[in-house]
Amino acid sequence: xxxxxSQNVLATNLSFVSRAVANRPHHPxxxxxxxxxxxxxxxxxxxxxxxxxxxxxxxxATILQEGxxxxxxxxxxxxxxxxxxxxxxxEVQTETSTATILCGSGxxxxxxxxxSEFPELPQIVHGQISYLPVEAxxxxxxxxxxxxxxxxxxxxxxxxHVKLNPTGLEFAATDGHRLAVVETPYSAEExxxxxxxxxxxxxxxxxxALRELERMLNQYAxxxxxxxxxxxxxxxxxxxxxxxxxxxxxxxxxxxRLLPLQFNxxxxxxxxxxVSALERVAVLADQKNNIVKITIDELxxxxxxxxxxxxxxxxxxxxxxxxxxxxxxxxxxxxxxLDGLKAINTTDVLLRMNTPTSPxxxxxxxxxxxxYLIMPVQIKS
Length: 381
Known about the structure:
By secondary structure, this protein is α+β, with helices and mostly antiparallel strands. It folds into three domains: 2-117, DNA Polymerase III, Chain A, domain 2 (Roll), CATH 3.10.150.10; 128-256, DNA Polymerase III, Chain A, domain 2 (Roll); 260-374, Roll (DNA Polymerase III, Chain A, domain 2). The protein has helices at 7-17, 73-81, 134-144, 195-198, 207-217, 271-285, 334-342, and strands at residues 2-6, 32-38, 43-49, 53-60, 62-65, 67-72, 87-93, 98-103, 106-111, 128-133, 159-165, 168-174, 178-185, 202-206, 224-229, 233-237, 241-246, 265-270, 291-297, 302-309, 313-320, 322-324, 328-333, 348-353, 360-364, 369-374.
């Protein structure tokens, strides 16, 4: 194998595909990236696969000789990312599985492993395929991914539950303390999908895989992405990028039952002002327990944010608000509260609640339909 391309192109694609390289590989070849050069198409493909998440990218290059090899991902990344701008050549001696990298005055040799040892990415032969709008997928991921659990003992909660219906997409994530549900309808330019094409799409995808998908889709910003799935795998196909992920087993919680149908108190606030005030008092909340107390005053149409750490410091911020339903005091984990606010991009937000100990719901006024449920923290009077 012998090809050349620009240092920037090779470094960018290596960096992206390396995110699927196993951290603690069960087999040495899983710490490598598979290179394949195809003269007919003029494309180089790079593949990484940790047996759960697989990423493949293709890019054009000047290919003088076809071939394939696997090379150590971390070492290769470290070398290529530090090479000067200009063309990079990579030549492989198949007999010894050795690759020589040339760039400017530099020459590096790496020992790899034969391509035959690298596992194939899972193929979905009879799975259902749908074409989803990139903009809708990105909106759903942005509004839900942050709420997924990082606790591996709650395996199914480490993913995002995705539903596809004829008019749009629904994304849901929860870690047991908060729940984010995002509904993204198709735009007027995007035809609604026929019911028979989407009836079975209800899957839970690992958050790690969806973070990589989000990174991949940010390069497109618009258009459509092909999604194919079966009972165990999901495959996302872009223009020159493919990502495959194992699905999470187990029944996802019936989260719609957690959402209150009516509320006794509601508050409308300017989102950026609320975020800024919370970030200031969070400096003190971080010193102890991350709790912020919110006092809602209907008479003065005001909301007060307070943090009390007597042995360190106390802080209070007041904000104008539109309050309905009477006064109430409620407390939240300030980080969880901020996470929900930052997933929303509208000017104003609506906070609704019933009692100081029952779930509160934060929603945007206008924009993407996001429902963010957050459990309050019980505090002493």
